[in-house]
Amino acid sequence: MATIAACGEWIVSTCDSKLISIHTKQDREPFVFDCSAAEKKPKDTESDNKSDDGGADETGHDVILAVAVSPTGRLAALTDDSKRLVLFRCDSPWQCISTRWVVRRCTSLVFSQAEDQLLVADKSGDVYSFSVEEPHRTGELKLGHLSMLLALTLSPDDRYVISADRDEKIRVSHLKSPHNIQAFCLAHREFVSSLLIPAAHREWLLSGSGDGNVILWQYESGRELQRWDMRKLRELPDGTKDGEEEEKRSAVSRITSSPDGLHVVVQCERAATVQMLSLEKGTEDRLTPSHQLTLPHCPLDINFDPRGRLWVLLDSADTPFQVYTHTQAGWQRDADNAEVSRVTEALKPYWKDLQPLAVAESRFEHLYKVNFDNMESYMEKKRLRLEQQKSHWGKKRMTGDGNKTPGKKRSKENKVK
């Protein structure tokens, strides 16, 4: 999984088993953390010999599954498919604070606003809380869903934990007492893959799904405010017929917001465009589709830096990064940007690890519902059954009264006598 994030003046990218942090202002040696060379799991850990479904343990490949950056950019964390949870301090230089172990492979991480907790969602549907202040303390189970969790976020005041799962549910729970559910946000028709609370509206929640929709909620009440179908907003490429693009599954893979909260950007899988949603004057209570960036390659990930610039990680060895800045003329690419050049050159030695990450294959494909059309087979079985019945009764008609045995007839006559 390839990701991009900003930690202050550092741009952080992950690919395969490596996390690479590159300073944008100075020519410093990049910080590289390789999970394949990291601390191994102790043999006496409780979850040894237990897989994600309770069977024999499956060997992980040290592939990074999720990354999170704290609100101030002071901390970062990652988790991989070998069930590591690694905490970093993003100073100069970077420092690995601790390596802990999770019970199940994780899908999403989020720091609390106070940066004292790191919440972890896993594929079995559980959310654990890990202490930041006690970096070697084991996690505490907070809440659970009945299906795989895919996204997790916290309200800006750390009051609510918002979790989304494969069964289209978004649950808003009280962080201090997670058994107390504030609301459900229910409207998606497929798994919920992305959550975001935009900076400008602390009461809003944006959710993206495998159904291709982005929905804006008032999350405390679970009320839907707006909805956009990303497939309909997307400008069709030349030569594409109407409806042809809509037939392709394109899950929403990332929703991110500028630091001032005025711009929201939506990324969908296998689409060489990203959609902008903006808060415009006179419509401060609504988001409006404002612009669409057409990219030379499909993006692997997108994110804003603290200065409000949009960084795009592309599926391209030659130009892995592009940066866009908002001006009066709209979103413009910073073509001759020294920071982009510095980050690109620093990342190139590790780019070979990104090559197997082809975006042509969806990382969400296995999460879609499988619909079985039983009607056709049912009707065929019914037709055969009716034909057999007709054939059976036809044979009886051809034999006439001969189907009544003489013995039965005599017994009836004896009764009359």
Automatic annotation (TrEMBL):
Subcellular location: Nucleus
Ranges of Basic residues composition bias in the record: 406-417
Gene3D superfamilies, alphabetized: YVTN repeat-like/Quinoprotein amine dehydrogenase
Region annotated Disordered, chain positions: 39-58, 388-417
Residues spanning the signal sequence: none
SUPFAM superfamilies: WD40 repeat-like
A Pfam family matched in the record: WD40
Pathway assigned in UniProt: tRNA modification; N(7)-methylguanine-tRNA biosynthesis
Function: Required for the formation of N(7)-methylguanine at position 46 (m7G46) in tRNA. In the complex, it is required to stabilize and induce conformational changes of the catalytic subunit.
Family designation: Belongs to the WD repeat TRM82 family.
Stated name of the protein: WD repeat domain 4
Organism of origin: Gadus morhua
